[in-house]
Each structure stands twice: as C-alpha cells, then as structure tokens.
Amino acid sequence: MLPALAPYLPTSAGWLAHWQLVVATAAVFNFAQNLFTLKLTRRIYNNVPPTSVTGLQARTFAVWTLTSAVVRAYAAYHINDKTIYDMAFFTYLIAFGHFSSELLIFRTARINPGVLSPVIVSTTSLIWMFSQYDFYVKAT
Predict the structure, then answer these.
(1) For residue 51, how many C-alpha atoms fall within 13 Å in the half-sphere facing its CB?
(2) Cβ-based neighbour number of residue 32 at 10 Å
C-alpha cells in the first residue's frame, strides 16, 4: 500500500514535511468530529458544565481546525517556502496558546489525553520547526 502512496508524499529532505502531512491528516479527522458531534469536544473542555460546550462553538473550532489542516498540508509540500513555513509555524503557536490558556488561564479544561495531545503536538512542532528553520528555509 505504501508504494502506491509514495508518489503523493512530500519529496523534500528530512522528516518535517511528512510530520506536517500526518498532523494535517489528523486535523481533518478532528474537523469532522467537531462538525458532527460534541462528545469528544466535551472531553477536552471538561471543567465546565457539558451544556457550555455548544454546537456553535464546536463548529467554529472545526473551521479553525480545517484551516490549520490546509495550511499544514500545504506546508508539507512547500516546506522550503519561508512564507508557508512561517504560516504553519504560527498555526502551532496559536494552537499552543489556545490549549494552554484553556488549561492555565480560563480553566475550562483539566489535564487529560484530549488536551495533552494538541499541547504535545504543538510543542513538538514548534521546537522542531524553530530548531530546523535554517535547514528548511534557505537564505535567498
């Protein structure tokens, strides 16, 4: 199966482009989940009454998630483009800021796998992208 997918995978050096594609693909699934059900969203925002997590909020979050998925997927195939690289970097910074603030400032979430997952992905991605910036974005 993997050989059949190979022509569609990013071809840049290193693994960051592949990581971008994996995260973007996971985000598409998260988009669908937020669009069609509140069940998993309520697991993330678990420090408020379940009725506080509304369909409108979940659909808004779904649109943000899809937007970040598109930016990250585009970055997977254009990882050496400074503008796209920076945009992808900022999507992780925004995600980190959102989930950290929900945990630490607004206290709408308690630590659980649903919250830890995006915090770990965003932190890992930010560190990786920051530390490898010169490798992927060549000075012109």
Answers:
(1) 0
(2) 13
